[in-house]
Design a protein that fits this description.
By secondary structure, this protein is an alpha/beta fold. The protein is built from 13 helices and seven strands. α1 crosses α13.
């Protein structure tokens, strides 16, 4: 249902679903990953399709994985079906802007929240959990708006734990990209050489910043660590799916922090997947600026719909987002005569 609410809150004409393969790609060769993707496509060949169920990339997957699935599906059905999956490489039916979409979508909502608060992004700082695709592009756009990120965290595969990397003068994406593996793991020794403090994994949540952006996995903001959130924090924008537990939500409400819930904040990815599907079905592709402009329009409109309802009814943003999403789905069911 989570993806259903996400599609509904940004008002795109899709349902929702989740699926995948349980494995750890850290321990798999590219050939093994290809075999898994193609095997998945063979098992799901009757259940996915451009007009049935359209998969998209998520945790630990990328454009190459999507292309293997597409290639296997087309081999099975003996025809060209670029719309069967999204997140494909550009030039193979993928959309320009899809790589940046989720992270940029997070920051479009943060930008609008700051506008409502009368705060210039240039006067703000942020701390980010995770350093994968979502986090990296959220940092990129946030810095373009003038904000300063002072702390990021990442998973260390060798030590099997996460670390936070802090630089009070501001982290540099260009620096970190050079010392980061393909899974978003930052090299500790090289980070220290570049002047970063290496802190405990959960230190990202304790920083004296204006904005927190959890962009890793679920259940990372809990009752035991939400109490450590600085009084300076004004906004939490959930770049990950389900990063905040119900216990933490209560604490965040009590602290008066403005919450941009996951299925609104990180809906940029599925929105751009929708754009990719549309382009594939038309066999006509837009330029990157047009894609990102359309994404900005969608995310901004969705944010204000939720924010306006939250203000009108004095609701928590997460509750307002659910009200809008569920109402839209319920209305569609009613219009079809299902209820």
């Amino acid at each position: 249902m989570w993806m259903t609410w996400k599609c509904a809150v940004v008002n795109i004409p899709l349902g929702g679903g989740k699926g995948g393969v349980i494995c750890d790609p850290h321990h798999l060769s590219m050939k093994e990953q290809e075999q898994i993707c193609r095997g998945y496509a063979r098992q799901m060949a009757k259940n996915i399709g451009p007009l049935i169920d359209v998969p998209a990339p998520d945790v630990m997957t990328n454009a190459q994985h999507m292309l293997w699935i597409l290639d296997e599906f087309e081999a099975i059905h003996g025809a060209k079906y670029p719309g069967v999956i999204t997140g494909k490489p550009v030039g193979m039916g993928g959309s320009l802007g899809r790589t940046e979409a989720t992270g940029y979508g997070v920051i479009y909502t943060v930008r609008e929240a700051l506008k409502d608060m009368g705060i210039n992004p240039k006067d703000t700082t942020a701390s980010v959990q995770g350093f994968g695709n979502v986090a990296q592009y959220a940092i990129q756009l946030y810095q373009q708006l003038g904000g300063k990120v002072i702390c990021v965290s990442s998973w260390d595969q060798q030590d099997q734990c996460s670390y936070s990397f802090r630089k009070i003068s501001g982290v540099s994406l260009d620096e970190l990209w050079k010392i980061t593996d393909k899974f978003g793991g930052i090299d500790k020794a090289k980070a220290i050489e570049l002047g970063y403090e290496v802190l405990a994994g959960e230190a990202w949540i304790e920083q004296d910043v204006d904005i927190l952006i959890p962009s890793a996995i679920e259940n990372q903001v809990r009752g035991d660590n939400a109490v450590k959130i600085s009084k300076q924090v004004k906004i939490i924008a959930e770049g990950a799916n389900g990063p905040t537990t119900p216990e933490a939500d209560k604490i965040i409400q009590e602290k008066g922090i403005f919450m941009i819930p996951d299925f609104l904040a990180n809906a940029g990815g599925v929105t751009c997947s929708y754009f990719e599907q549309v382009q594939c079905n038309m066999n006509y592709y837009w330029e990157k600026d047009e894609v990102l402009s359309k994404l900005d329009t969608k995310m901004t409109s969705a944010f204000h719909s939720v924010s306006d309802l939250a203000k009108k009814r004095n609701m928590y943003m997460r509750d307002a987002a659910y009200v809008i999403s569920i109402n839209r789905v319920a209305q569609a069911c009613k219009d079809r005569g299902w209820v």
